Amino acid sequence: MPLVTPLSADHDSETRKLAEFFNETLGFCPNSVLTMQHRPAISKAFINLNKAVMANEGRVTSALKRMIAWVSSNSTGCRYCQAHAIRAAERYGAEQEQLDNIWEYRTHPAFSDAERAALDFSLQASQVPNNVDESIKKRLYDHWDEGEIVEMLGVISLFGYLNRWNDSMGTSIEDGAVESGEKYLEKNGWETGKHG
């Protein structure tokens, strides 16, 4: 049972219109956004931030951004966001071999050195205390420009917010996200946990 009950998707017309963005990324409006509607200024600001962070302005693809989100969410243990991130990665064209082997991104040949640098950045930036150091910085600069690094940290930071929101709320996970979690993550111990 979630901490706060999500409101109807029709509760706030501005949020409903902005939330159409999620129909593309996930195929549904997330319960997290429906909970944020208790204060519509939060739901609207969140959706606009999400759209800005997920916009592609460099070589960081939509699929890689969602894999960055997955690594961050896996690091913090938010099962709700893990399932959402892997679902969005699939919908945005991540390679099947990457989806099947996301847990082994550090060693699996489906991932390039540039992707590994981005995903390791996500892992280290999601730790408390933060573990981004000169080694991570060097690896990032070997493959990415400063604007692309800003895009990556935008994703990591956005999911830091979402991981805290959804784990604290115990947000109920939607069927589509459960399906993706079971398909790609269950073999390594993923379950809905408090989000079921």
From TrEMBL:
InterPro entries: AhpD-like (IPR029032), CMD-like (IPR003779). It comes from the Bacteria. Residues 40-120 form the Carboxymuconolactone decarboxylase-like domain. SUPFAM superfamilies: AhpD-like (SSF69118). This is Carboxymuconolactone decarboxylase family protein. The lineage of its organism: Bacteria, Pseudomonadati, Bacteroidota, Flavobacteriia, Flavobacteriales.
